[in-house]
């Protein structure tokens, strides 16, 4: 596997392509010089190049110019690749920061979800006082008040229809059987809620009637107590009068008891 197979970034591939062209041009220049070796005239290669035939010297000069051009292209591509790497690093850092932010937001959502689930569970397990009310049995209520039950059923149908219309306005088309089953469950839930409210209202009315009756009996009791107290007072006065009468009648009794 070559470097070209591993590297897929366009900028780096451009650097490799430019380097490959520079290498090919360098190989061509070396091959040309190998075919026409420079005479050993000193340390400066330019002195030996002057001794080459004019056409060979021109070919070598052209090859060198092409090589310099390819090397300049390699440097240019390399500079662009470095700038691209820096930009990629910045983009990666920004993306990492965004991912961290989203991850934190997701964790917050999970925490809120668990909190809401615990609150829902607590509400579902909460023992409301209405569950312990001494209501009449549901069957008996349905038998005694069929018109109230039918009214609760009609209210449940209307609430379900309103909910369905609202869902269509917000979500578009009907979703089919699944939504139908959900509507049936929702209608039953609303009906049970309305029926429970009706039973509680009936119990409330019954208790108000009993309370009114109790208040009436209490007033009657207070009246009887007041009348009884008045009669006791009258009897006490009568006893006092009788005692006075008896005291006043003692001389008469003594007179009749005298022996003559």
Automatic annotation (TrEMBL):
GO CC annotation: THO complex part of transcription export complex
Basic and acidic residues compositional bias, start-end: 160-170
Region feature (Disordered): 160-180
Main subcellular location of this protein, as a coarse class: nucleus
Presence of keyword Nucleus: yes
Protein known as: THO complex subunit 5
GO MF entries: mRNA binding
UniProt source species: Macrophomina phaseolina (strain MS6) (Charcoal rot fungus)
Pfam hit, one: FmiP_Thoc5
Superkingdom per UniProt: Eukaryota
Amino acid composition bias (Acidic residues), ranges on this chain: 171-180
One of the protein's GO biological processes: mRNA export from nucleus
Keywords, alphabetical: Nucleus
Cellular compartments annotated: Nucleus
Record-stated family: Belongs to the THOC5 family.
């Amino acid at each position: 596997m070559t470097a070209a197979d591993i590297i897929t970034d366009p900028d780096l591939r451009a650097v490799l392509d430019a380097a490959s062209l520079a290498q090919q041009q360098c190989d061509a220049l070396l091959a040309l010089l190998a075919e026409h070796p420079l005479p050993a005239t000193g340390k400066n290669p330019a002195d030996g190049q002057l001794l080459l035939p004019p056409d060979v010297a021109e070919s070598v000069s052209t090859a060198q110019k092409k090589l310099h051009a390819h090397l300049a292209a390699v440097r240019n591509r390399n500079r662009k690749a470095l700038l691209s790497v820096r930009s990629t690093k910045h983009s990666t850092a920004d993306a990492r920061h965004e991912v961290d932010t989203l991850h934190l937001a997701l964790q917050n959502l999970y925490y809120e979800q668990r909190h809401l689930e615990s609150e829902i569970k607590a509400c579902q397990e909460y023992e409301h006082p209405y569950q312990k009310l001494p209501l009449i049995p549901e069957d008996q209520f349905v038998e005694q008040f069929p018109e109230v039950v039918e009214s609760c059923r009609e209210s449940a149908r209307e609430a379900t229809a309103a909910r369905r219309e609202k869902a269509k306005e917000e979500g578009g088309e009907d979703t089919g059987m699944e939504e139908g089953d959900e509507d049936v469950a929702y209608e039953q839930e609303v009906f049970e809620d309305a029926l429970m409210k009706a039973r509680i209202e009936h119990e409330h009315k019954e208790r108000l009637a009993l309370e009114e009756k109790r208040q009436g009996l209490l007033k009657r009791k207070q009246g009887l107590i007041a009348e009884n107290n008045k009669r006791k007072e009258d009897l006490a006065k009568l006893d006092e009068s009788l005692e006075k009468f008896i005291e006043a009648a003692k001389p008469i009794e003594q007179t009749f008891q005298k022996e003559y």
